[in-house]
Amino acid sequence: MLSIRVLRESRAPSADALTSGERRVALDPATAGKLAMAVSKDAESPVVTIESGAGTHAFFNDEAYADTRGVTVADDDSGRGDAELVLCVRPPEPEAIDQLAEGSVLVGLLAPFQSKALIERCKARKITALSMELVPRISRAQSMDALSSQAAAAGYHCALTAAHEASVFFPMLTTAAGTIRPARVIVVGAGVAGLQAIATARRLGAQVWAYDIRAAAREQVESLGAKMIDTGVDASGEGGYARELTEDEKAKQAEALAKHLSTAHAVITTAAIPGRRSPQIISEDMVKRMQPGSVIVDLAAEGGGNCALTKAGETVMSGGVKIIGPTDIASELPVNASEMYAKNLFNLLSPFIEDGELKLDFEDAVIGPMCITRNGDVVHDGVRKALEESA
């Protein structure tokens, strides 16, 4: 019978820093029980093992797991080698891979283009590694798309951060001291995170403009009550992502964007390309032209930032403009973010559980594209090329 293990995150917060670090867990108690039942409806012996403390920072304590049918809690990591399927949120430390059974399956947000040491360990132990970042953008895989589910949490929280850090009210207020006009907010990037940021800022009463180099984003932006900044550049690419701009296109979009930024009270940037550095969209000169008291919240900080002055995990002041580079942003909503991620995992894996065993189909339109390593080889062309270039 399939044995499943959920790892304790290596980047979990320390006891005295509960608001930083990775707070999510790969399975919440309800989904852990659901996955156990998918393996064995009788589940006389535990099917899913949760490492003690794995859910603590997401407010799922060990007792909640222990009380779930088919689920047990492990006091330490000594039994990792007994699991056939291992689930995580962030990439495990390379040393942790050595504790896993040869030929086991590892599933998580593995950052495959930045995790060379981890991939080499997976190769050496013939581990099948499935990266949730590489779930294809097809209709069938929408319920498995962890990037989208976590981006929704991140976009929402970024809008709240912008409202909290801004020097003005977001909504229009009519007071005895006069009328206060609503804040002007610009959201850069109209993907899942950007659209959630737009919707949240609108709910808070701000006037919102959106910037995206994909012309197809206009309809979604306007459906949320925001206005699209027209730059005359369309950079729609494959898989729903934006392609790289030419130098002429960059100059054209920069000129149009700079004009709008100069009047903004808050800017939320969300543009990211998986496996690559975040595109730099807001230059230092653009920041200089912004009004004092305005704020930039750069959701793309972990990938280098959309703003030239962004520093990941820090807040920078430049000419009266506050630039915030949040990290682990989805972890700021650990309960719902964990629940959504767990459902992504369940929707991905449950169709391939048959007679109590995991039977992955590597010709499948979802499993094939997200497989990084298998049988001691790097089987993903893009990841293999990135590793060769970094050698």
TrEMBL record:
Pfam families membership = AlaDh_PNT_C (PF01262), AlaDh_PNT_N (PF05222)
Keyword rRNA processing assigned to the entry: answer is: no
Q: Which PROSITE patterns match?
A: ALADH_PNT_2
Q: What does this protein do?
A: The transhydrogenation between NADH and NADP is coupled to respiration and ATP hydrolysis and functions as a proton pump across the membrane.
Listed A to Z, the keywords are: NAD, NADP, Nucleotide-binding, Translocase
Signal peptide start and end residues: none
Q: Which InterPro entries match?
A: Ala_DH/PNT_CS2, AlaDH/PNT_N, AlaDH/PNT_NAD(H)-bd, NAD(P)-bd_dom_sf
- Do you know which PANTHER family this protein is assigned to? NAD(P) TRANSHYDROGENASE (PTHR10160), PROTON-TRANSLOCATING NAD(P)(+) TRANSHYDROGENASE (PTHR10160:SF19)
User: Which branch of life, at top level?
Assistant: Bacteria
Report the SMART domains cross-referenced here: AlaDh_PNT_C (SM01002), AlaDh_PNT_N (SM01003)
Q: Where is the Alanine dehydrogenase/pyridine nucleotide transhydrogenase NAD(H)-binding domain?
A: 163-325
Which catalytic reaction applies to this protein? Answer: NAD(+) + NADPH + H(+)(in) = NADH + NADP(+) + H(+)(out)
Q: What is its EC number?
A: 7.1.1.1
Does the entry feature the keyword Membrane, yes or no?
A: no
Q: Where is the Alanine dehydrogenase/pyridine nucleotide transhydrogenase N-terminal domain?
A: 5-154
Spell out the protein name for this chain. Answer: proton-translocating NAD(P)(+) transhydrogenase
What family does this belong to? Answer: Belongs to the AlaDH/PNT family.
